[in-house]
Amino acid sequence: MAIMKADKLGVSVAKGPSLMTGAVPKKDWPDVEAIFKPGNYAYPAKKEMIEYHSKKTLPGHPGLFGEPRDWDPETDDWKLPENWKEIILNGIKERLDKFRSLKIFMDCCVRCGACADKCHFFLGTGDPKNMPVLRAELLRSVYRNDFTLGGKILGKMAGGREMTFGVLKEWFMYFYQCTECRRCSVFCPYGIDTAEITMMGRELLHLVGVNINWIMEPAANSNRTGNHMGLQPHTFKDNIMYLCDDIEEITGIRVNPTFNRKGAEVLFITPSADVFAEPGIYTAMGYLLLFHHIGLDYTWSTYASEGGNFGLFTNNEMMKKLNGKMYAEAKRLGVKWILGGECGHMWRVVHQYMDTMNGPADFLEVPTSPITGTRFDNAASTKMVHISEFTADLIKHGKLKLDPKRNDHRIATYHDSCNPARAMGLIEEPRYVLQNVVNNFHEMPENTIRESTFCCGSGTGLNTDEIMELRMRSGLPRANAVKHVREKHAVNMLSCVCAIDRATLTSLMNYWNPDVEVCGVSELVGNALVMEGEKERETGLRFEPLAGMEG
Ligand code: SF4
Ligand code: SF4
């Protein structure tokens, strides 16, 4: 969908009324209706997607996705099951019994407002219901009404609200205007994690068949072929071999990766976007060069061909199943441990949920670098090491021959991807790598990086074109910080360690900062690596001329 020019949208964000309601709200928030119109919602899941998931992905969990059907959010007939309220209330009860955190988050908010202006969706849309405190209140009000004594006796006076169709509409709108980035939780004095509330909200919506296609289709593909694009094994392999051809043309070095090789020491898994789409493919070329450079005994898998976990955006059962595939493949191949590429949600799942879902992975060994001997005790349970940790350790031990001058055509900054930064504390390692592979690096303002990083604005399945204006609005806080370093230091490259970011930040930069490109950190590593026997390099991994080689 075409959206207005960036300068106009910028003014609209600063001065205009709320995107969602079309007006500055004059009523109390429960009385402001959610109105769906083209551009403010992602398309619902296709009927066949729900049929697929019910039959193939989680056949042992009937009713998790509601009844397959076609429905239109813009109408008032969502073709819900007759007893949809009962399903939702039972779903809340079940989750309150199961997840202590949910009950705590429902009870302990003191409305201090510290989170209110920390959400990029609120900053970009000006819609009060995008304040994290109010987003949580959409569910909390129903909880209070039906699950607390005060609410049962006093109802509205105790902040309770009945579950109505209007409330369901709000849930669909605002739980899909949250990227589960957890920035708000950093500022909450009680540690309330609104992302977890959104996850519960989405699970409950699924129970009555309210969901979006840009999550359900990639999740179906991941279950069917192992990766979210639905690439067949031969295509996955061929794409990587094409990247090897490009590497040969640029460096004169032939790298020869293996696939599904039993007995390899390490299984390497990365988001499939690194294998098929720009700019991720250049990140993958960086991995290929690095592994060749150190002679790593590793294999790719065409079965576990996706690091990204679209289950995280759906429900716990789907997340568990898709995560389990990586470990099932590690077991089948008999590897010692798993090395993971630059992904966001893969790492959130591995670090926050793996142990209770599929772990501990006792059949694998505690990862030890075969090159440096470093034992990664931080991965003693998950048996999975992040490529930035692995590369930083190699550099620290002097195992890489690097020429950072080859990145002198890049003036880089670093976007902390939400999940690696906030969910696993991966903050220093990518910076250490960058400091060793580029000569020109500048940080964005302190309140927009590290634990306080601003989200790309399109994660958790919101990277879909029909909500482009919403995405450009929610990505504006991040884009503004990039603009700052572009104007101050002439930054022209935004690096990150997440495949969704590489896709979404590219659209975001094209819109707000068109002269800034986006890359993975491993691409810059690949550019800087001096390979034994290589020819003189004239271009970087994306065939761009190096500094001094232009024209
Ligand atoms: S998790 Fe992120 S997107 Fe969701 S409410 Fe908090 S800051 Fe906003
Ligand atoms: S910062 Fe925490 S306690 Fe304060 S309003 Fe937000 S969620 Fe509630």
Note the topology.
Elements: H1 6-15, H2 47-57, H3 84-98, H4 100-107, H5 120-125, H6 132-147, H7 149-154, H8 165-174, H9 183-187, H10 194-207, H11 213-225, H12 233-251, E1 266-269, H13 273-276, H14 280-294, E2 298-299, H15 316-333, E3 337-340, H16 345-352, H17 354-357, E4 384-386, H18 387-396, E5 412-414, H19 418-424, H20 428-437, H21 468-474, H22 476-489, E6 493-496, H23 499-512, E7 517-520, H24 521-528
Parallel strand pairs: 1-2, 1-3, 3-4, 5-6, 6-7
Helix pairs in contact: 2-11, 3-4, 3-10, 6-10, 12-14, 14-24, 16-19, 18-20, 20-24, 22-23
Give your account of this protein's structure:
With 551 residues, this protein is mainly α. The protein has helices at 6-15, 47-57, 84-98, 100-107, 120-125, 132-147, 149-154, 165-174, 183-187, 194-207, 213-225, 233-251, 273-276, 280-294, 316-333, 345-352, 354-357, 387-396, 418-424, 428-437, 468-474, 476-489, 499-512, 521-528, and strands spanning 266-269, 298-299, 337-340, 384-386, 412-414, 493-496, 517-520. It has a 4-stranded parallel beta sheet with strand order 2-1-3-4. Strands 5-6-7 form a 3-stranded parallel beta sheet. Helix 23 (499-512) links the parallel strand 6 and strand 7. Helix 18 packs across helix 20 and helix 22 packs across helix 23 (499-512). It is globular and about 75 Å long. It binds iron/sulfur cluster (SF4) (2 copies).
